[in-house]
Amino acid sequence: MKPIDVMLVDDHRMVLEGLRVLLEPLEFVAVTGTCTTAAEVLTALQAHVPDVLLLDINLPDQNGVDLCLQLTQAYPTLRVLALTTLNEKSYVTRMMQNGAAGYVLKNASPEELAEAITRVHAGKKYFSDEVQELLLQPTPAAPEIPVLTRREKEVLALIADGLTSHDIAEKLFLSALTVETHRRNIITKFGVSNTASLIKLAAQYQLI
Amino acid sequence: MKPIDVMLVDDHRMVLEGLRVLLEPLEFVAVTGTCTTAAEVLTALQAHVPDVLLLDINLPDQNGVDLCLQLTQAYPTLRVLALTTLNEKSYVTRMMQNGAAGYVLKNASPEELAEAITRVHAGKKYFSDEVQELLLQPTPAAPEIPVLTRREKEVLALIADGLTSHDIAEKLFLSALTVETHRRNIITKFGVSNTASLIKLAAQYQLI
DNA sequence: CAGAAATTACTGGTTTCCTGGTAGAGGCAA
DNA sequence: TTGCCTCTACCAGGAAACCAGTAATTTCTG
User: Fold this and answer.
1) CA–C1' span, B151 to D13, in Å?
2) Nearest beta carbon to residue B22 from set A13, A193, A195
C-alpha cells in the first residue's frame, strides 16, 4: 500500500528535523518535503501536491491561517493539519473555517501525530484532546459596542482627552451647543448617564 | 580533545529531536541528554552535569527564567544558553541576570548554534544578531502611575462606574463633601482637570 | 428624487463637578 | 511623644455637564 505523502511546514528548521525523526519509523508515512516559509510551500506544491500538509500558523512571510485558505481552495485533495503551540479557540475556528482538516498541538506524541495524519488522510477531522476541551467551552458574548458617526467619534476622542465642550467647539469650529448635542447622543448610545462611565466603556471597547 | 557535553531542554519532543539531528554532525559536541520538564532537568543534573545546557523558557512545570537562576547557582561550572522564540528585552535581561551565558532564537542556523555553544563553553557570552539589536533599542520610560490611598482607590472605582459624588457618599456611608475632597485629591494626583481624562488614564494604567 | 440619517444649533433648566480654601481626629512610624 | 499621613468634613462660588425638548439644513442612500 502506498504510504501517506506528507509535507512539513514550520519556520524553525529544528522543528522540521524533529518531525522528520519522529515520523521516520512510521512505514505508512512518507515525508516528501519540508518548507520554512509560505513562499516555499506555494512553489513546492506547484511541482507536487502531498496527501497531507502539517502547517504551522506562525510563518515569517504569511500567517498560516490565510495560507490554509489559499491552499485548500487551490488544491481540493490536500488535507491540511494545523500544528501549532497556539491553543486558542479563535485560531482553531478560523483554521477550520479556512478548510483545515485538523488541529494538533506541538506537545503531541508521535502516536498522536500518526493518528492525526491517518484520520485526516481518510477524510476525517482530528483535534488534540486539549483542543476539543477548548472548543466545548462557551464563548462569552461579545459586548454590544455602540456604532458612532464620524463626528461622534471625533467628539468622543476629544472628551477623552479632557477637553470641555467649549474647548471642543473651538477646536472643531462648532457651537458649544452643537457639541453638547453630540455629547448627549453619544451618552445615550452608550446607555450611561455621565462622562466617567462613558470613557470607561469606550476604553474597554478600545474606541479611544 | 573531549567534545563539549550538551544537554537539551524543551517542552516539545519534536524540537529536541530536531536539535539532536542538527547538532549530530558536529564532532566537538556531544548531546548527552534531553529533558522536557524542569523536574527532569533537576533530576538529570544530580547524576551528571553537562558543560552547556540549551534551555527553553516555556516549560510545563516551571518557567525557564527561574530554573536558570536555580541551576546556575547550584552548578557554577554549567553554562546556560537560552533557546527560545521569545524575542523580548525583558526576557533577555532577566535570563542574563539569572546567570545565563547566552540567548539564541529558535530560528538560528546549525552554524549559529555551533558558534553559540562554543563561545559560551569558552566562558564568553553569545546573543543572536536580532537579540543584540533588540538590546540596543532604548527602553521607553514607564509612565509615572500615581499612588492612591485605599479610600481613593475605592472612590475612583465608583467614579468609573458612573456614580455621582452623592451616590458614592451613600454607598460608602460618607458625606458627599468628603467624597468631593477625595475626588479633588485623585484629580490632583493624576495631574488632570476633569473626570474624562482621569478615567482614560486610570484605564491605561489598569487601575480600574 | 425622496426619505432617512447626520449635523447643526437653540431654549431653559437642574444637577454635578471643579476650584480654592480651611480644619479636626485617628492611626502610624520614628 | 511628636510629626506626618490619611480620612473626614465643611464653606462658597463658578464652571461644566446633563436633561428634555425642538427644529432647520446638509448629506447620504436606495
Assistant:
1) 27
2) A13
A10 and A91 share one domain: yes
Q: Is the CB of A152 under 7 A from strand C?
A: yes
Enumerate residues 6+ apart whose C-beta is below 8 A from A43.
Answer: none
CB contact under 8 A, A21 and B22: no
Q: Is B61 on the interface with A (CB under 8 A)?
A: no
Distance B120 CA to C10 C1' (A): 77
Q: Distance between CA atoms of B112 and A122, rounded to whole angstroms?
A: 41
Provide the grid cell at B92.
533577555
Residue B187 contacts A where some CB pair is shorter than 8 Å: no
In a domain, B142, yes or no: no
Q: Residue A4 carries which side chain, given as an amino acid letter?
A: I
- Residues B162-204 have pLDDT tens digits of 999 999 999 999 999 999 999 999 999 999 999 999 999 999 9
On whether both A104 and A39 belong to a single domain, the answer is yes
Q: Which strand (E) or helix (H) includes residue B82? A: strand B79-84
| Residue A159 touches partner B, C-beta closer than 8 Å | yes
Q: Is residue A144 part of a domain?
A: no
**137-156 of B, contacting A, C-beta below 8 A:** none
Contacts of A198 in chain B (CB under 8 A): 196
pLDDT tens string A151-161? 999 999 999 99
Instruction: Name which of B103, B107, B139 is nearest B120 in CA terms.
Output: B103
ipTM over 0.95: no
CA B55 to CA B45: how far, in whole Å?
13
d(CA B86, CA B61): 18
Grid cell digits, residue A159 = 472628551
Question: Are B80 and B16 found together in one domain?
Answer: yes
